Task: structure prediction
Amino acid sequence: MHICTGARRTRAAYRSLLVATCAYGALASGAALAQERPVEAEPEASEVSEIVVTGSRIARPDYVANSPIISVSAQAIEDTGQVTVEKALSQLPQFSGSFGQGNTGSTSTGLNGGQSYASLRGLGAKRTLLLLDGMRLQPSNPDGSVDLNVIPETLIGNVEVITGGASTVYGSDATAGVVNFRLRRNIQGVEVGSTYGISDYGDGESFRFNVISGGSIAEGRGRALLSLDYTNRERATESERDFFLTRSTTNATATTPQGAILFGANTPTLAAVNALFVNKYGTPALTGSAGRFTNQLGFNLDGTLFNQVGTQPVRNFRDPETDEAYISPTGTQINFGSPSTAAVQNDMERYSLFSRIDYDISDTLRFFAQGSMVTLESVGIANPSLASGTYALTAPSTNPFLARTDMVSVLASRTNPTADFTFQKAFDLAGARYQPYSYDLYQFTVGLSGDVPYKDWTWEAYASASQAKFVNEQTGGVSYRALRNLLYSPTGGTEFCAGGFNPFGNFIPSQDCIDYMSIRTLNSNTLKQRSAEATIQGGLFALPAGEVRYAAGVSYRYNAFAFDADRAFQEAVNGQFTSDVLGYSVLRSNGGSVDTTEVYGELLVPVLANLPFIKEFNLDLGYRFSDYNTVGGVSAYKADFEWRVIDPVRLRGGYNRSVRAPSPGELFAPQSTASVGTGTASPTTENGDPCDTRSFFRQASNPNAAQVRALCLAQGVPASLIDTFTWGSAQAFALTGGNEDLYEETTDTYSFGVVVQSPFEAPLLSGMSVALDWYNIKIKDAIGALSVTNSIRYCFNSGGNNPTYDPNNYYCSLLARNADTGLLLNPVQPLLNLGQFNVEGVDLVFDWRLSPADIGIPVEGTLSLNSAISYLGAFEIQDLPGAPTYDYAGAWGTAIESNAGLAHPEWKINTSITYSRGWASVGLRWRFIDEMIHSSLITNPASTTPNVDAYNVFDMNARFDLSHDTSLRLNVTNLLNEEPPQAGTTPGSYDSQNYDTVGRYFTIAVTKKF
Result:
């Protein structure tokens, strides 16, 4: 997949549709609908006397989990109508929408483009451990997160999700919980499947084709499995959806293609400015401060000027208004827009292979080998390069193109008339910024297992080697050095390119000049994992209540990453490193590794049995010691219980202490910048720069406005600008990177629940079951980035975080300003051991299976009702030890980290009802997300940022088992095409991570068995 092959990709989509259509016809040819054909069951595996449940290493004869566990079937995943597993998980009440297919463009040099993560309980992907049949997967990000796109979806048998710490059993990263993908092993023959989907708007097409082959080998002593999968998903764009707005209804980024000058402290006289605006242009007079003009002036194509950003109306804007540059509804500035880059679903092309061989060397010794390879490509598209804020340009007053404008007299009236000036401009002439992401991942595992000639003891040992190679190309960038050459050239740059470059107005230079200033970069990142593990388990001795069983093991794990930055990001100039890419700070090549040696043990102790109201009472105890080369030795432990009161009623719960050591990325990642949305200043919200005179902090109604003003002056806003200061942007370029001083975070999880199977024999009630679980997860010394938006607000005493308005306050120490313009420079977003996170809630899962006749409906078949309900009682965040703690349960807008999810609804519900009869079934699913307040209200009760409305969505699915071992599946996601609720202050802003911004989506799939 390449960025210059749009036409080829479009044709490829139609070829995919043609292939899919032909496949449906070929697979279904000659297939008449059966009358009452029962669904064929999977071939039964050989008898299994013991099972290992997710959350334990001990094999036992029943399937019982002591921790809160949710099991999701492959059919439930298919019923979501998605070609990847990401959306299926994020729709579960236990998950918060995370980084995934809704993240469609980035201006950062980050290491996660095109990936999809799972964020359990909103605690982030790096705290959600993903397993494949109980074994670790190769991380896709230096912070330890695993990309869900590497999961072989066609082989998934079911997914088990455990809430809370599981480090005792699985080691680091399992602090929020575990997602274990259990694969089908009993494939006999060949399965061929194809899926096609398209949105109601005619975009976002998806196509998938997969082949699975499996069977016995070596006269039944072995089994082999091979899976091949191709997936293609196209972009879905905002422009096709009426609920997205092409133009912002509020002030937004004011850096436009016309270009504008920021005078900073070297202001021109108001008389010189009004000599043009009043006397020449015939507009009302502009205002200023102390006889000086303190706002910005932009350039029209005819050389005249217009005023830009401030509290007074825009005067004399003569260029045609376009979606790229238009007067904002407030009338006080020219907004910049880039609608052509906006999408609601990213594209993806993926090839994956998975294979496994099991072989019985003898009756007591078994061998297995497993391998997977994934190649994935995706393209992120972001707005053109902006020379603004931190990355604003400087230009000389002698630039020859200035003589063609009215700016000469204005510049001459400045306090220092010959000084250089600050210049802002959107470089859409270089095009949008395209970021093709390419991944190549492999993982190979070999192992042995066997029986110990003592009781029922068994052992297993395996070793795994894996690697993920990530390549990020960036086009559409602009060279800072080339721009400086052009701006400071006495000829206007004609010695560098044909015609030179006139930046003062929306002029399009020659292609030669565009090529000269354009820059293309390539970054790569290689992650490696080497691991080995050996376990033994079995029965020890008998107690009156039953047999004591154990598991013990040792493991070693090595994780490393090496980041290779393009030379343009790390040019050496006079002994210092600088970046030649406009909009990006220095990005140095870097890397590091972490290795871990661990020992662990687990005991299952039957304490009581066969007593009144104590059918059985068991304890599950565990301990793990981990020795890291970075943080040293740490311990994790657990004490869980299972109490079967009577046969239908079982209580479960316990305590888990989990530990997560800092990952290689958190320790050693290079410093880099990323754009962070801050919003625009307004009198009723805490958005934007608090020093902006339009902000809530500077209003006369704020009793602390004078202290805010003094703090702004202390930070570096020039005194000549302080009373008219405005910030014409809605984003800051945050600087973040690894921190080698990090230490481990610890998590304490408490849980208590009840599982009830219906005790009734009546057909109407016998098929009921319910599980109710309470959980509390408290993470101390949490590793995370201190949010820039919070630092900006907290510096100015939001939430009481700086009551004395001290410029040396910790939050203020992360901010710096340009001494001339007062604009924020790269604010630091440090990676720290923060305060703590505390999440508490209740999960309810209800299942009911019955015959329609049981409720008076004279129809054969089966009705199945399933409902998963989650209540969030607390989502508390403390940024720093000793700082205030804020509870964001029932609020939207604050995440514990960028990829963890912004939505924390009190109630989240998934309910489905399915009717099955013989060869056919049809189902309806209801998804509900509760109304939420905006998180700004938590720290500022006076905020007027609107709530996020409740969201109700219905999905429909149908399945048909046809003759000739063929099945057909139909899905309609978002059946009623429900629009997402507005999220934030700006109309047309939505949360694609948690809400359906694609709209109604149709999927058809067919599977044929041979």
Observations:
- Confidence is low (pLDDT under 50) at residues 1-49.
- DSSP finds 14 helices and 51 strands in the chain.
- The longest helix spans residues 6-28.
